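User: Earlier you gave me the apo prediction for this protein. Now I'd like the version with nicotinamide-adenine-dinucleotide bound, so I can compare the two side by side. Same sequence as before, with the ligand SMILES added.
Assistant: Got it. Here's the input I'm using:
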Amino acid sequence: MAEIKCVGVVGAGQMGSGIAQLAAMNGLDVWLMDADRDALSRATAAISSSEVGDDAMRRLRLTSSLQDLRSADIIVEAILESEDIKKKLFNDLDGIAKSSAILASNTSSISITRLASATQRPSQVIGMHFMNPPPIMKLVEIIRGADTSEETFVATKALAERFGKTTVCSQDYSGFIVNRILMPMINEAFHTLYTGVATKEDIDSGMKHGTNHPMGPLELADLIGLDVCLSIMKVLHQGLGDSKYAPCPLLVQYVDAGRLGRKREIGVYDYRKKPVTPSPRL
Ligand SMILES: NC(=O)c1ccc[n+]([C@@H]2O[C@H](COP(=O)([O-])OP(=O)(O)OC[C@H]3O[C@@H](n4cnc5c(N)ncnc54)[C@H](O)[C@@H]3O)[C@@H](O)[C@H]2O)c1
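And here is the structure of the complex with nicotinamide-adenine-dinucleotide:
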């Protein structure tokens, strides 16, 4: 496989912009593509405010055309977490990317094997799961689809290491490693709150100080986004077929109410400057 010199990133949201920043800071040419021009403007503002340096900014090019990614040696997809939309993108990328290019997904939970099936190059499709925020978090979880080749795996691992990351390798089963373990813990924290075992503050404080976690599970859920947590629990429940993964009704209710966490200024906790009167369950 040719040396990776140019990285394409699709999706310039919180993950894609961070991945593009990492690649540019590590000496690679980058094309960052998003269908939404406002997202590209926000990404440029976020990356330039992180003081990545002039060289990195020069290596970073923004586009709203997928065609521009045809020179990339690897394309990392970081668009929204929907299997149908990602499959359509992988199919389009397969027609645009050079034949040697790797197509990677930053999905939190969707099957790499199924994304690969939308292409004619399943051996060159892989999961490259960065943690949030990508420039800071140390881990990249690499997921091998059913047909991912050793060559693709080795090249992807080397790229993550070039970014200074620690890698772990997961087989392609729902939730991979990190979310398979983290999300049921967060879901159980919701059950603990739902059944009145303790207050949200005591649940978070108990896990922070009792198990040495930097954040409590409910604060962490607010940071990740309760909608994201719910969608991953649904993938675990459906993909692994065990009722222990059923989403907690309180998590479902919060999402139904639009309490999605920090991004909406209300989730388990209320981050608004003027909180409204809390419901009894708050
Ligand atoms: N947020 C997290 O903590 C986190 C952590 C790890 C992995 N992920 C995964 O990373 C991916 C992106 O998550 P995010 O939080 O950055 O989302 P986001 O909503 O911040 O960004 C998604 C971007 O994709 C763009 N987009 C959507 N469809 C597109 C298309 N067809 N073509 C081009 N651009 C398109 C949107 O305009 C948006 O700018 C998801 O798969 C998510 O599961 C998220």
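For your comparison, keep in mind: The first strand starts at residue 6 and ends at 10.
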